[in-house]
């Protein structure tokens, strides 16, 4: 009986690990040059910062909308337009993927995330 419990536990851990490292369909990683280049002229890019409000207040990208991960399922309809592209700003790639999976579930099709390391967009912490 113990081996069955261990096998189930190992399967759950393996599933979680695969899900964490696998890419999210529809999430595109972009460089700062791609965001500020000539191709983005005229396109409204919504910037979604999914960090907590305290972190957002300390350092954020001007124009970013702050909706923490816990609030995202409840307020995404009132704060974001699903037909417009969304740039997800998060503290780490795990949060980025989690937010992207949520938004995909709600019908958002054009999802983007910063490709470079921290500080690429001037906020100093999140991106």
Automatic annotation (TrEMBL):
Domain called Rhodanese: residue spans: 41-112
Domain of life from the UniProt record: Bacteria
PROSITE patterns referenced in this protein's UniProt entry, alphabetically: RHODANESE_1 (PS00380), RHODANESE_3 (PS50206)
Family annotation (Gene3D superfamilies): Rhodanese-like domain (3.40.250.10)
Taxonomic lineage from the root: Bacteria, Bacillati, Bacillota, Bacilli, Bacillales
Pfam families registered for this protein in UniProt: Rhodanese (PF00581)
Protein name from the UniProt record: Rhodanese-like domain-containing protein
InterPro entries for the chain: Rhodanese-like_dom (IPR001763), Rhodanese-like_dom_sf (IPR036873), Thiosulphate_STrfase_CS (IPR001307)
